[in-house]
Amino acid sequence: MKHPAPPPPTLATDSDFLAAAEALLGPRGLTRDPELMQPWLTDWRGRYTGRALALAQPASTAEVAALMRLCAAHRVPVVPQGGNSGMVGGATPDASGGALLLSLRRMAAIRRLDPAAGLVVCEAGVVLQHLHEAAEAQGLRFPLTLGGKGSATIGGLVSTNAGGTQVLRHGTMRAQVLGLEVVLADGSVLDLLAALKKDNRGFDLKQLFIGSEGTLGIVTAAALRLLPAAAGRATAWVGLGGIKEAGRLLRRMERRLGDVLEGFEVVPAHCLASVLAHQPGARSPLAERHPWNALIECVSPHEDNAALSETLEQALAEALEAGLIADAAIAANEAQAEAFWALRDGISAAERALGPAMQHDISVPVEAMPDFILAAGPAIEAAHPGTRAVAFGHLGDGNVHFHVLAPEGAVRGIWEEAEGKAISAHVHDLVTQWGGSISAEHGIGQMKRDELARLHDPVALGLMRRIKAALDPEGLLNPGKLV
After folding, report:
1. Pairing verdict, β 292-300 and 30-31
2. How far is CA 313 from CA 113, 252, 328, 329, in A?
3. Within 13 Å and on the Cβ side, how many CA atoms surround 117?
4. What string of H, E and C letters represents the secondary structure of 216-244?
5. Is this prediction's pTM over 0.85?
6. Mean pLDDT (the chain, rounded)
7. What kind and span of H or E run contains 361?
8. Chain-centre distance of CA 473, in angstroms?
9. 328, 308, 257, 147: CA torsion to nearest 10
């Protein structure tokens, strides 16, 4: 399906717009220096590179609003960008050079942190790790984390409805957002920051912008929920005979451990071996090799480390006695727990070092995931000789990362274009047949836009396009992404 091209900026090369933007933002807020812009014109994966009219870095919501009014007057497209850590090219401009790249990184203030209310209001450019540190200093925690926490920003996390490793217990970013501040395409500011538990004044408008990837408005601030700091943490690495056993273990742990179960990740032997070979100093937690592994984490605001570890150890002992697991190791301290997580977080880099791969962020119903993996892997390998399919990740929420590794000797860049797209289409067809989603937590961006148009419910697509047209009639916000 063809997508309408964004309207060409009428003054894309006109010095009037740039002069007005520079007068508004000052020398720190606007640059056309190629060296300063270059790092932000290519996505994190290196798949997409674009050009931009300039790089704008406003320092306040007022400046964002004034800049959007200026862009609307000159019909200049805008590509919002946070930490540039996205996985689907959603924050990369196209090759035309007519769009303004809008970075929110200078808007990095924590406006309010209320321990009594369990609430923080922070600007879009706040880095996730900095939010974690600010919450911890007040005896609280923000219940969402991911491997890119050192660069991912709150605005980007909201705009992509990010997931991470704690979704099993706490949900995606959507569940953490209590309110938003958004600048619309015409420069008006939508203030939805009031964190009311009850509010029946019509539509819950903030939900429109969560996961909309900057196509409906620019998130400038968010009110987020905080939880009491963890009193105890227990982490275990478990060896399993198969992915079906992992599914059964997950259900058993949910019944046995209840709300303290926060993470349940699965790692096949191939992925663990790749990390051990690639990551300096990495060691396997278990003496023997197992076809599958599970990384289990429990967190409690009440039990200390020792008590929680004892609870987890007893639950695993019962699973061992029932023949559900082959072996297990419980982290003795924080350093060992972090070492377990480093094995999980190192998979993508290790697999990339092996050569080209098509990486898919997919979900199916939780109870169907083991069967999906067992069916989809062989189907892909049979249809595309020489490839290898590996699945790993967040089994607890029905989301795994399904990678298809290229045949030996394949050339990076060439193979993805020649064969990779057909492989991805095949994977997405299988996911759709299983009642799943082609994007579980990374968004659509430009990488999956055409696949979304091909496979998503046409009624849902129609509604999305009508909402886009209503909020951004000139098509200036992040053109070419999502819809």
Report:
1. unpaired
2. 36, 14, 9, 9
3. 14
4. CCEEEEEEEECEECCCEEEEEEEEECCHH
5. yes
6. 93
7. strand 357-363
8. 28
9. -70
